[in-house]
Amino acid sequence: MKKFSTIAFALAFPLALSAPAFGQEAARTAPASLSSKCNFLPDAPDKHVVVKGDTLWGISGKFLQNPWCWPEVWGMNKDEIRNPHWIYPKQIVYFDRVNGRLRLGTPLVEGATGITKLQPQTRTLGADEGNAIPAIPNNLIEPYLSQPLIIEKDEFANAPRIVATQEGRVYMAKGDKLYVRGDLKDNKIFQVFRPGTALKDPDTREIIGYEAMYVGAVKLDKKAKTEDGVDTFYVTASKEEMGIGDRLVAIPPTPIINYVPHRPERDVKARIVGVYGGVSVAGQNNIVSINRGSQAGLDVGSVLELARYGKIIQDRTNDKKPIRLPDETYGKLFIFRVFKNISYGLVMEVSETVNVGDQVQSPER
């Protein structure tokens, strides 16, 4: 978990709101500066008391038509979007109807004038950041955060590999020694993976990566002493038996799991290339991979729309000429892990099954 040593104003604002501003008679439309897609729900509540188990996605859905509008209604800039949005249980999210914004604060006693004041909050981040509510339910994606999942084509060719085992053993278990060749790039702790299904771009049909099977972890014991020598490792964890030919990838830093849902900075059009687990269709809370990544402008927390190409039918009113029906959106995809040309996303709010080859695109502004 990323640590912060400074004292931060955690999206808390001094705010004075009159009682009528929270009434049903107040204006419900957002100011013109907000996207037309970022309207508040007609029945949005005046406030929401944050409780354990809440998520940014869920709270956003109580106020907004589209959860990816979260940064707009908080007036967040690019840097704030890329950093965790720390909100904690017992805090209160208020709907400032006059300005069309959400606010965070702790209420003071309402005075005789009917004015409710919110006290700005400061918090030293790092001591209790683990209690902050996540963007989406962590249990759905935690198993997929630390394991490689995707080994891209260029990485696969250059990854260090197991070339020999202790006493010629076929497979290795925890505590056993093994021998590796390849560029370690000064890393000492690695995950071991076995290349699995090749992922092909639905448009070009070229292999863009491999879905890897995690088999365990190893730690460097001794570096090679000669140019034609091998590095000695020992097995620290074993999920599956590992052996000659398995590849190594450096263990990434512990990921931040408190992402801000947002629209990608650039317009993105992509396709579903696979459903994790080897099946052909996905549903709510399943994991899928798409053929776009950081090079296309995606980052963690990006929200995309799932869509299906419009059907081509015959126009029975005009000589049966073929016509294409509009593309139909049927759900959302929350991107939680990004590689160079591939990303993993959690399927959210779908009304139909997700098929390999379906469209994925940035939400309309």
UniProtKB/TrEMBL annotation:
Domain of life per record: Bacteria
Residue ranges of domain LysM in the record: 46-95
Keywords, in A-Z order: Signal
InterPro entries in the record: Bact_Kbp (IPR052196), LysM (IPR018392), LysM_dom_sf (IPR036779)
Cleavable signal peptide: 1-23
PANTHER family in alphabetical order: PHAGE-LIKE ELEMENT PBSX PROTEIN XKDP (PTHR34700:SF4), POTASSIUM BINDING PROTEIN KBP (PTHR34700)
Protein name, as recorded: LysM peptidoglycan-binding domain-containing protein
Source organism of this protein record: Undibacterium cyanobacteriorum
Organism phylogeny: Bacteria, Pseudomonadati, Pseudomonadota, Betaproteobacteria, Burkholderiales
